[in-house]
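Onboarding guide, step 5: your first structure request.
Type a short instruction followed by the sequence, for example:

Predict the 3D structure of this protein.
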Amino acid sequence: MTHRGRRTRALVAVVVGLSAVPVAAFLTVRATQDHTATVGPSMPSPDASRPVEPLTTPDLPPSAPIRVEVPRIGVRTSLMKLAKNPDQTIETPPLGRAQEAGWYRLGAAPGSRGAAVITGHVDTPHGPAVFYRLGRLRPGDQASVLRADGRTAVFEIDSVERFGKDHFPTNRVYGDPGYAAIRLITCGGRFDRTTGHYVDNVIAFGHLLRSEEAH
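The system replies with structure tokens like these:
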């Protein structure tokens, strides 16, 4: 995740690797409906080691997220709403708002059953962006999402993994794990100056730990 602030080409954001995946895959609601993901034996499901805790945390009713905070890496940002582009690829936050993350609104709301997907840039030609330190998260770290209904969904990170964009784990990211989950995504790995893209995605997988009412 070395910053390359002197680049003359604008970095392509976040989840460039997602662009090659049809939007139908983004809208997968159950893991059994999409078998396109590549998950090798060295990349087991991050939730497999936590079979009880996620299932015993009550899911919340849908409510749009307003802000996400990740204390370990100093992130506190409002969340813009993302959908899909005319070419059926997922939208990414504009580079002009690189310090703000985005929520994929066609997926699950944070705290509701399903995988809530939040994306953010790693950097821009001018410096680090909102998810510059995402790869520093560790299992047990927490991320909190304030929702429009006044509740805060607190997630525990299960794993942080890096995937080549040609092996993006579509099913693990967008499939329904059976409980409320979160996926934080940015770019990572080597920067390919030929294409202007990073070659990998960094993804933090987590589950709902608890919910807190507004005081």
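Each response can be followed by summary notes, for example: Residues 16-36+77-136+159-203 form a domain with the Sortase; Chain: A; fold (CATH 2.40.260).
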